[in-house]
Amino acid sequence: MNTVHEITASNTNVLIDFYADWCEPCKWLNPVLEELKQQLPDLYIHKINIDQLTEEAAAFEIKSVPVLILFVDGNQVWRMNGFKYSKELAKELKEFLKA
Asked: Is 26 part of the annotated catalytic residue set?
């Protein structure tokens, strides 16, 4: 599996979704992220299961899920814990994305 560093190094705009299979809000976020892909085609979304990639979760101090972290050119520029709908998320993320 690719690490966050590898993914963010090879893509300009990357949204990492830290999740767990047992997390209900994480499940609610799945269709939101699908909508977000349609609204923001320049955004690469990558999911990281915190139960499988515990070192990655620890490196980003993930204490609860879901957590979304946006990287632009390999730099973390935005972070959100919890849930938002796609329209609200897209509005926040657009401020940071590079075309």
From this structure: yes
Does position 33 have pLDDT exceeding 80, yes or no? yes
| 23 catalytically annotated | yes
Quick one: CA dihedral 2, 45, 59, 71, positive or negative? Answer: positive
Q: Are 26 and 66 in contact (CB under 8 A)?
A: yes
**What CATH number is attached to the domain comprising 49?**
3.40.30.10
Options 26, 32, 40, 68, the catalytic residue: 26
What's the domain count of the chain? 1
The crossing angle, in degrees rounded to 10, of helices 86-94 and 24-39 is: 60
12 inside domain: yes
Could you tell me the residue range of the domain that residue 19 belongs to? 4-94
pLDDT level of residue 56 (50, 70, 90 thresholds): very high
Give me the catalytic one of 7, 12, 23, 47. Answer: 23
Decide if 99 is inside a domain.
no
